[in-house]
Amino acid sequence: xxxxxxxxxxxxxETEKQEIMFEGxxxxxxxLQKETIPKPPTQFLSPKIxxxxxxxxxxxxxxxxxxxxxxVYSGEFGKLYIISRGxxxxxxxxxxxxxxxxxxxxxxxxxxDVYSTLGSVGLNSxxxxxxxxxxxxxxxxxxxxxxxxxxxxxxxxxxxxxxDWLSNSGLSLALLLxxxxxxxxxHSGDCRILLIRDKxxxxxxxxxxxxxxxxxxxxxTHIEPEIQSNLQFFKNDILLMxxxxxxxxxxxxxxxxxxxxxxxxxxxxxxxxYAKEKKSIEDFxxxxxxxxxxxxxxxxxxxxxxxxxLFVFSLLLFSMMMVLFIISTYxxxxxxxxxxxx
Length: 342
What we know:
There is one protein chain. By secondary structure, this protein is α+β, with helices and mostly antiparallel strands. It folds into 2 domains: 2-298, 4-Layer Sandwich (Phosphatase 2c, domain 1); 304-342. The protein is built from 8 helices and 15 strands. Strands 3-4-15-14-9-10 form a 6-stranded antiparallel beta sheet. The protein has a 5-stranded antiparallel beta sheet with strand order 5-6-7-8-13, covered by helices on one side.
């Protein structure tokens, strides 16, 4: 049986040759082998945060091919991490590939003029201009994520419409964008992003699905992604972007134990060794990230100025309270001193 993918034919057997992908190296799908995918650096330094990453994707479910896919890309937009999972029967691996490539292509080609977004906003000082540009960059980042996912949705739905056997298929996706303005998370479906900090593990995303009558899970293709911004991370925080095949096999407490006190590479390999012995019909894909460097507080200038004003106000209020206390107790103190002298 053969499937058409971007005008290139490939057989199911050929996809079994896809290898494990480490350190952000994306092994192209046979259907996309003509595309050149550069190997990104393992670390990215921005004014906000510095990350290292280690990735692993492996066919571990019941399907003939790995239905998961991921990509790690860098450019003027910052650093972009994406994982996706095709949901359904044969051929859904193509949906995962299409989604990742569509998002990558969108960010690769964007050219945003931040000053055009400002419009006719009046700026009274350099500080206001800096704060306004920062706000515009945040807005642009969120908008770019939405537009990239919209592009991915369009390509996935277009592909599904041309192939009847994929009519009941769906897709889950999660992405993380790190740039000079901060870190942004987006997800749809059941791909999860978890945070490990101070010996605790937290889900930063919640599974979101729309179900058809017979229970097929539809993520990206029918639901707008949930986007989180203004996130604050600290040195040694660990972020885990995982597909269903990871957390179905390994619980959050088990992941916390595996990633405690180890290098990122060792932890991912230990997670793989542990997970491959567990039963699940889903494949295994993880992007692990560790914060190497981050500001103590991710705050903009305007927020800091507000904190300074609040501090000064609190100090003045405390001083006034002390003056009132002294005035109210002055007669008592004078009387006490008089008694002591007599």
